[in-house]
Amino acid sequence: MTQPIGITVSTGQSYNVLIAEDSFSERALLKKFLQILHFNVLADVSSGEAVIEYLNYSSPVPDIIFLDFKMDSKNAIEVLKEIKPIFPKIKIVIVTGNKEKEVISELMKMKIDSYILKPYNKIILEEKLIQLLGRNDLILQSKIIQKKEPIKMEALSIPPLPSIASKILQFEEEATGGSNELEQIILPDKSIAADLLRISNSAYYGRSKKIQTIKEAITLLGLKTIKNIVMLQTKKHISRNLTYSDLFKKHLLESPILTALIALDLTAPFNLKSLREELFLSGMMRKIGMTVLALNSPKSYTDILTTFETTPSDLSVLEKEEYNLNHLEVGVFIFEKWNMPEVFKTIMKNQNFSMSEFSSVSDLDRILRCAEILTRNIFKVPISDSELEVFTALSKHYQAKGDLFELFSEDYYEDIKSHPFFEAT
User: Fold this and answer.
1) Does 56 score more than 50 pLDDT?
2) 39 is in which domain, residue-wise?
3) β-strand pairing of 40-45 with 91-96
4) Which range is least confidently modeled, 164-173, 225-234, 354-363, 387-396?
5) Does residue 204 contact residue 418 with C-beta atoms inside 8 Å?
6) Does 122 share its domain with 173?
7) What is the pTM of this model?
8) Quick check: is 375 in a domain?
9) Is 362 part of a structural domain of the chain?
10) If DSSP codes are grouped into helix, strand and coil, which group holds residue 116?
11) Buried b / exposed e across 99-112, counting CB within 10 Å, b at 16+?
12) pLDDT in tens, 177-194
């Protein structure tokens, strides 16, 4: 039986590893990846001084040290100068987020054993360790595993849009028979009818008199809210064959709803209350591509979300590396297949707009981007510097008063979880 990479073939014992990385989230991710590969992580520290201290006062001596190139006080070069003469047999792997050729060249001059670029990628990490440890028995196996066939968009399994959702999305009161006709569309679908009655009678609406008929619910909720409820049901319908882990529940169900609700509340400090009616549906549905990718490749998508959750990374880039397409492209493809209005396709495309695109995107795009960053902060998903730059520009552009991160905090999340839309997840 082939031994895992982290096990010494001759002794059957795990390689001992020390991690030095000043970012807690990246340190935790590297540790998790190494433990999956059966390495024994002796310690994970945040500074060069801690590496020296460990080697001076602790045991056993690590077989491998993963050393962050840039750390405060004592960087990798200074650490190497101290430990190499005393511990020449320890293998040194430098980790760095700098991809410049000059930096890589400089690293190789330091007589290190290997280097790994951040953000961490489990497959690349495996490949580097196979080479570092001379595991020729795993080289062919690694190549077979890594040879990925890009997913073709047309080959994705995409559930059809339920007919009731299609009818209600296209429904316009002014051009039809109004609430009577809408009632006739809804009544045959018992699940949606029950949801409308449940939400109408929830504490959120504070009605003293119970709503008993669909017609009453239509009058209370209004067409826009009904469309929102129908699309919530649609999301549940298309993902009914997906096993929802805590990770999937957070990113595929709770995060889109929280983003949509934050977007609604952002219209006050941004002075854009006229957009409230459009925001919820746009915010909730623009992550539909993530759900479809998870449906088609649940295991690999779990790995992608794990990386996304622990490092300041771009989800669409992680997806592109794995599938040669991302949830934004998949979302646009789904909306085209479902014949959704053009505005939804545009919002899908503009999700990750950069600072250079700031002036060309709409208020809807901007509010939703801001809401998404606030959601990530609540869920403790790392936010990159470029996202913070966009967020700061948004707050300044709309002259938002107060600290938005403080306004939309974990306390806000606890309060809003009582919203009836969360009960539909």
Assistant:
1) yes
2) 16-146
3) unpaired
4) 164-173
5) yes
6) no
7) 0.64
8) yes
9) yes
10) strand
11) eeeeeeeebeeeeb
12) 577 888 888 898 888 888
